[in-house]
User: Fold this.
Amino acid sequence: MASRDKVRHNYDHYDGHRYNDLNHRKYADGADVCIVGAGAAGGVLAYELSKAGLKVVVVEAGPYWNVQTDFASDELSMSQLAWQQTRLVSGKDPLDLGHNLTGRGVGGGTVHFTGVFFRFHESDFVVKTLDGVADDWPINYQDLARYYSKIERDIAVSGPRQFPWGSFSGPYPYPEREPISANSQLFRKGCEKIGIKSTVAPLAILSAPFEGRPPCINRGFCNQGCLPNAKFSTLIHHIPKAIQWGAEVLSDCMVTQVEVDKSGKVSGVLFNHQGKEYRQRAKIVILSAFVVETPRLLLNSACPQFPDGLANSSGLVGKGIMVHSSPDVYMKYHQEVRLYKGTPVLAVTQDFYETDSSRGFVRGYTLNAHGSRPVAMASGLANHANIWGKRLRDIMLNYNHYARVTVVGEVLPNLDNAVTLSDEKDEYGLPRAQVNFSYGENDNKLIAHAVDKCQQILEAVGCTDPIIVPDTAHLLGGCRMGNDPAKSVVNGFCQSHDIPNLYICDGSVFVTSGGGNPTETIMAIAARTADHIVGRI
Ligand SMILES: Cc1cc2nc3c(=O)[nH]c(=O)nc-3n(C[C@H](O)[C@H](O)[C@H](O)COP(=O)(O)OP(=O)(O)OC[C@H]3O[C@@H](n4cnc5c(N)ncnc54)[C@H](O)[C@@H]3O)c2cc1C
Ligand code: SF4
Assistant:
């Protein structure tokens, strides 16, 4: 069948059409590795493992997006990129689990993420040692350093020559983006006025051509999928390359169960495609289905050998989930800012990332100068700040004058913040996820400090009338890594303590959340896990 694409990119899989024929599967008789979920981690794993010569099958619940025909520069229609299936939320600060937290489809969350690309700092891995809270990771910064560098090179991350915070001081492979948006210029000016260091953001977005893809043209539809392909996603980068190395990607296939054989090892997965059940056998299964769905699948896969769910001898599967606190501060400027223009985040500061005991809380945060499209702004004001009617209308009539800064704040783990199974069933007959979340005292103090800093930055350039919109971002944890099987779900290579051929590799293995956007760390951990599996199989 002829390709429907005018532009042929290497995502053009199965002649431009989504894979639909499950009777002719490449590895129907069994694969070396079955990866559940084709997002940030799943994409990297698929690429690295297939490149190493392994037979890889990726089973993905959502569609195989065709950038040219499925994406639009339209806020409302592109909410289809998110995981919108019903989940139940509870706690003092129930999470809003829609467009802002999860992706669904090949590429996962990377398809509609903002592209801000940070390494963790050394301190993130030793929080217990340094601050006496949470726990230390079983790996340290040096274990990930070369994988961070590899990922940055592989996808041509753009960023400043000098990055002032953490162990990596730059330069990034591609030059920093310019010009930066008016909102980011205001932010940088405000920071300078009150003595805060800032830089142009490191981004998984091209500042010059790379592998046939064009640089960013600043249209600002990054959270709608990026039609020009200037923004990295595993949909357009790792997955097509994995396919070229022989991997098979089964899209629109929802994994419902991980199967266990008589010896107590996993033997593959069951998945549902258009109402019909299929089985995929594999020597190794890797769950990369994101923070809510990975624990849900492990708990849903309970069987006589593992009645409490798979990999759950510690009882910690689903426990200790974290988000980033992510309040927005909007303020009015006397000239037009036009928040829709340009890549949403183009300037950042990590001056408040590390613990400073004089602040009265531990750990810290990143501030991102953050654009917003109008529908996102209006729905944030209405849903999270309870601003309705005339006030909402008046604010939105002044939309072009608003500047915005967003916090990405570390949230400490708490076992009561958890994914569990509810009594309600979904369309596959499986219990829906119940997601409980409340902030702790340290989290609330950190938020108050960060919001105050955002206001100070914008006031310094003459902005007025602050509006604070509480929000969260970047769900993490729930299958934490650790050396002690009684206190963790996987080891430092993401291998489950209980079942040697079951790996869990995605944002759920995080021990702490760090104070910055997490996806580069998720991808670096996936690349390291792939190396480990290749050395072992
Ligand atoms: C609006 C938005 C902006 C963001 N901006 C940034 C940013 O600027 N910087 C940053 O670092 N991070 C950002 N993130 C976060 C980033 O997208 C996530 O950290 C990252 O995608 C998580 O990777 P993952 O591999 O854990 O899961 P995902 O990328 O979510 O992939 C999981 C995949 O598993 C699939 N799946 C789930 N259950 C099943 C099942 N049962 N069977 C088969 N498949 C299944 C899903 O459909 C999905 O494709 C943003 C996220 C959003 C939503
Ligand atoms: S601003 Fe750049 S990265 Fe974002 S959608 Fe437009 S071209 Fe893509």
Observations:
- The longest helix spans residues 441-460.
